[in-house]
Every structure is written in C-alpha cells, then in structure tokens.
Amino acid sequence: MPDDSPARERIIAGAMSGTSADGVDVAITRIIGRGTSMTAQLLHHHHRSYDAATRSEIFAFRGGEASANLARLAELGRTISLTYATTINEALAASRLSAADLAAVAAHGQTLYHAPPNTIQWFDPSLVAAEVGCPVVSDFRRADLAAGGQGAPLVPFADYVLFRHPQLSRALINIGGIANVTLLHGEWPLERTLAFDTGPGNCISDYLCRTRDPHGPGYDVGGQRAMRGRVIMALAERVLLHNYFRQPPPKSTDGPDMIRIFEKSLAEETRPHPLDDLLATACWITVGSVTHAIKSVWGAMTDEAIVSGGGAKNEMIFTWLRDSCDSLARTDDLGIPADAKEALAFALLAAATLDGEPSNVPSVTGAKRAVVLGSITPSPSPSGRGLG
To answer: What pairs with residue 308 in β-bridges?
Structure first.
C-alpha cells in the first residue's frame, strides 16, 4: 500500500524536452512530503541532445510540413521515446542508481502541436517503461484540457512549491521556445497564483538561425550574434501589436504561431536585414512581451524576478531583463540549474499524480476545477516497481 505519511520520501526521474527541441533533460529528484508541502532535492541533472535528423523532423511536423505522413510520425515517436529512455538510464548510471530506486519516471513528451483544446505531446510511455524498468507518468496536459483549461502552463504548481517566499512577490520567468511567467505573492495560496505564456522565448531566434544560417549550430549561442545586432524597432513594435500580447490570461501559445506572427510582420519591411539585427529584434520582442505582461497583470514589476530555461543563457535577453527588474537572478543562484528546472517540475507533478493530488491551477489554466494530472503506465516487468 502507498505510504501516505507527510514525510513520505521517493526518487522520481523528471524528463523534459521543450519546444526548442534541443534534446532531453533529466532531473533525478528526491521528493519528501506531498501536495504543496513537498520539498525537492536535485540529485543529478543530465542532458542528451537530439541528433540533427530528429530535431529537423520535429520542426518539420511542428511547422506542418510532414503532418500527412503517418509512418514518419510513428517513427518519430519511437525515436523520441528511445532518446528519453537512453537519457534517463544515463542519468541513473551517473547517479549510481537503478530503476529499482525510482518511484516513477515523469515524462512530458515532445510538443508537436498545442492549440487548446487540442494538443499533441508525442511520446510512448510503454516503450520508456520497458526500456527503463519502472512506471511512467506522462500526458500531463489532457486532464486540464478536459476540465476546460488551456493545458498550460503546467509548472506553476512546482514554482509555488519551490520558490514561494513569505514576504516577497516573485516572477518566475521561464524562457524556452515559448516564454511563460508565474507570479507568486508571499501571502497568496496556490489557488491565487497567476501564470501564462507571455509569447516567444527562443522560438523566433532559433527559427532565424535554422533558416538563415543552416550550417550553423541552430541557435544563437549565448546571444552573441544578437549582441552584435541592432534592434529593428518598427518590426518589434509591429509584432507586439498582435492581439495575443494584449489578450488577458488565461492564455497559452506555441512556437509556430509566434513564428507566423513574426514572419507576417517581417514581410512588411521594405528592405532586407542582416541576421544579427533580426536576432537582436527577436530578443527585444521576447523581453518586451515578458515585461509588458508582468506589468499589465501585476501593475508593476515584482520584488524579484527569477529566470530559467535556455533563454537564461542568452546574455542579450538577460541584460535587457536585468535593466527592467529591480532584482534579477537565475534559478542557478537558488540551487536549481536553469536547464534542469522544468524537468524537476515534472518530477513534482508526477509525485502529485501518484498521491492523487490535483496539480493544475485553475486560476492559471482557466480550468473549471482542480484535477489530478497525468496518466500512469505501470512497469511491464514483474520485478519492476509498483505505482509509488
């Protein structure tokens, strides 16, 4: 029988691949307690990049280029799932742990499409359960969507558990392919937490690098090229006039939508622009949409802002955020590597699933009610662990 004591302890491998499709991050996490009283300790973070062919295939489907080919779609799901399994097993080996030490794997899967109420998080939990040898908790969005929510953002539950402060208001800014923000007030319970997708994170910048520098790394390493560029202010302002940025929460979006908005605005330019200038403009749009969103909902910037995700490593984005915030830190400064934060968040979500605890936040997603998220796939091996 499950141990329902408040001091319950288990290890969960949180696994995440974001909309930037750079690969899989695994956070081996020790979790104590249940509900919003949980505490989490990161034991090990491990990353495995997708190979170039897999990354290209993901973007082909996300851009609608290959959506009719079911054989390719099925093969991509297997490749993604095997990459997850390999990354998890590598993380366990590096931690000197085995599948028998895990209560579960928590796996978000790869977002191929998200336009509520429809979503595709491509992933085969049975294959991962077989390859790793323990139960898998996955498909976290659908229960919230079924309750009338956006199915996103999902991490505010974990943000509340990990980062709430009794006296300070905090903005947790995650900049992956899409940027999202969680707003925490020291005195507010989880039910009053605010969070939503603010708009593009790295998706426009990555798209520009993939399409205009196809032999390059596929992204602007450290924001170095953006730092050499100049913002095309008319283009940035045209993008930020789009209705999405004025729409009140709850709201969520996806990379292809943001790229289409950018491309439509770029088409109105009367002359071509160098890539460095376009990348600087993409960073400006990201920061502008984040800060505008916080101020429009909160009335001002929060006491502290804490940034995570790949965008935390982009010095152009970080510098402009710092100029807009009274206090800005990376989650690394609070003991959680920026690259590991979302994988760790899914470990906490899976712990809530195993405990039967709701972990969506209706004030965030717009759902009609709080619901237990995720589906549980048991270990197929008789010797495997049970359900926590």
So the answer is: 174
DSSP letter string, 232-259 = -HHHHHHHHTSHHHHSPSS----HHHHH
Contact 233, 285 (CB under 8 A): no
Instruction: Report the C-alpha gap between 167 and 272 in whole angstroms.
Output: 49
Q: At what angle do helices 275-298 and 203-212 cross, to 10 degrees?
A: 170
How many C-beta atoms lie closer than 10 Å to residue 352's C-beta?
25
Residue 200: partners with Cβ closer than 8 Å, 6 or more residues away = 177, 178, 179, 255, 258, 259, 262, 282, 285, 286, 289
- Burial (Cβ within 10 Å: 0-12, 13-18, ≥19) of residue 325: buried
What is the residue-averaged pLDDT of the chain?
Answer: 93
How far the first Cα of the chain sits from its last, in Å, is 9
Neighbours of 354 (CB within 10 A): 24
For residues 25 and 218, give the distance between their C-alpha atoms in angstroms, rounded to a whole number.
Answer: 18
Cα separation, 66 vs 58, whole angstroms: 9
Q: Which of 159, 151, 74 is nearest to 117 (CA)?
A: 151
pTM of the model: 0.90
Residue bearing the bigger pLDDT, 50 or 20: 50
> What DSSP character marks residue 280?
H
Query: What is the token pair recorded at 27?
Result: 């956070």
Q: Are 63 and 256 in contact (CB under 8 A)?
A: yes
* Spatial separation of the C-alpha atoms in residues 327 and 322, rounded to whole Å: 7
